[in-house]
Design a protein that fits this description.
This protein is α/β, with parallel strands linked by helices. Helices cover about 25% and strands about 25% of the residues. It has seven helices and nine strands. A nine-stranded mixed beta sheet has the order 5-4-3-2-6-1-7-9-8. Bound molecules: NADP nicotinamide-adenine-dinucleotide phosphate.
Amino acid sequence: MRPHVIVNVAMSADGKLSTRERRQVKISGVQDFNRVDRLKAGSDAVMVGIGTVLADDPSLTVKAEECRLNRLNRGVDMHPVRIIVDSNARIPPDAKVLHKEPGKRIIVVSKKADCAKVAEMKSLATVIIAGEDRVDLVQMMDELGKMGIQRVMVEGGGTLIDGLVAADLVDEIYTFIGNMVIGGKDAPTLADGEGFIREAEFCKLTLLEAHKIEQGMLLHWNVDHKP
Ligand code: NAP
């Protein structure tokens, strides 16, 4: 069975995930940071696209001691499995996500990825090959399901999220909207691929929850799957 997929992003009031230079910015505060940490701790895996690894070099670990202990008490690793979607095996071997703290890592590549780089990665992570030129996200989710991963939190960025939304693989979306305008037509947004053209193709959402957190607003959406 395919995993349940939850997207979480923080965006500015004008819908930008970072600056036009793709520089990471602080959009939310401590309260929202803790919410995201709990969401991550409640997931089997946390996933990002290679663009986010190259731009932000995140570690994707659970930060709060309490959340880590809860996971250990549940009999699972301290950190969820860290998954990087990287068709061409571009991940730098010294990326934080591959080294910081113990835990399992999965790198998903396409058949086009350089064999030598894939071999190198196998010493640092489990490698899944899915798709010809680009990672086939449906095949990837099927593989993750077979590995027992039931709940995946996607931390971005906009290109990967767009691919997942277009393939109707997302079940829930959390958007934290922060109190600033970042601007820039080239700054990343929640879904940065080609976009849908016809209204019938739009990814429709049902609002489950909306509440103020510090100086921003958290929206929790359910994705209405296509028939
Ligand atoms: P991204 O979404 O993290 O990664 C995109 C890359 O994933 C693609 O370029 C592609 O590279 C790979 N990919 C492989 N298969 C794919 C598929 N089927 N569909 C889509 N992508 C696929 O990168 P991004 O859009 O450049 O986002 C990075 C920016 O977002 C940074 O500025 C970062 O700071 C920001 N960000 C913000 C938040 C937030 O919550 N505010 C969260 C995360 C990131 P290959 O073709 O090489 O595989």
